[in-house]
Amino acid sequence: MEPKLTGSEGSGHGTIRSLTKGLELLELVITARKPMRLRDIAATLQHEPSTALRILATLEECGFVTKDPDTKLYSAGPKLARLRRFAPAHGLLVERLRPFLRELNVATGMTTYLGVLEHDEAMLIEVVPAQHIVSVRQLPGDREPLYRGAVGKALLAGQPQPLQEALIQSMRFQRFTANTITDADTLRKELQEVRTLGVSFDEAEGHEDVCCIAAPLLDDTGYPLAAIGISMVKQMVPNGARGQTEWIETVRNTASTARKLLVPM
């Protein structure tokens, strides 16, 4: 005989009311544009504050939401970020975004790439070679530390704060060139710049002859599903990556257009 749900835990349709409340609350916190207070969450969902608090405590314990110990504000937790890495699949991302990589390649003449967060590294999943004889050679599957290049910083800047800080704290900074970021405070400042500008830079930080510009492809909650960017030979850009005003805008606009294709997924 199939078990039947009755009383406060279920309805005539076999649903679990407490689970429904929990999922509604989780959706609210995820889709909120900024961290929320307990009383605002309870008021929005028309829950008793004590009920909302119990649900939040459970979600926090499981890693689905996080509570700032100072402000008492709730936001999406680190487990959600880890789960998002499984969807959309890399193959589907490449299929949908390859036309944007090609357009960016034609517009700039530079090597263009698509990268995703893979554990604690940035990994390229698609590359369109540059049109110049002298160019940056990159391949799908190439990986690099998150602090070292433009794609890694673009992906790291949009992570939920608890996960971002956990990733930073776990980093073993290594100097690759004179420009490599080698401390957490400098990285945090640059991540704030990425959030402000919508683009990230690599000024010969991983290789002394390579500069990059990248931009995150954000979903409707601000989470970076991927990053798209260009790589250039340093000697071809005397003013560095930050000096390429037209290319910066092109990369930013390409990412903005491409994300509209991903968000409904």
Secondary structure: elements and pairs:
Elements: H1 17-31, H2 38-45, H3 49-62, E1 65-67, E2 74-76, H4 78-84, H5 90-108, E3 111-118, E4 121-128, E5 143-145, H6 150-157, H7 161-169, H8 184-197, E6 200-203, E7 210-218, E8 224-233, H9 245-262
Antiparallel strand pairs: 1-2, 3-4, 3-8, 4-5, 6-7, 7-8
Helix pairs in contact: 1-3, 2-3, 5-9, 6-8
What does this structure look like?
The strands form two sheets. Strands 5-4-3-8-7-6 form a six-stranded antiparallel sheet. It folds into two domains: 7-76, Arc Repressor Mutant, subunit A (Orthogonal Bundle); 88-262, GAF domain (Beta-Lactamase, 2-Layer Sandwich), CATH 3.30.450. With 265 residues, the protein is an alpha+beta fold. The radius of gyration is 21 Å and the shape is elongated. Mean pLDDT is 86; it is low at 1-12. It has nine helices and eight strands. The protein has helices spanning 17-31, 38-45, 49-62, 78-84, 90-108, 150-157, 161-169, 184-197, 245-262, and strands at residues 65-67, 74-76, 111-118, 121-128, 143-145, 200-203, 210-218, 224-233. Helix content is 42%, strand content 18%. A hairpin with a 5-residue loop joins strand 7 and strand 8 (224-233).
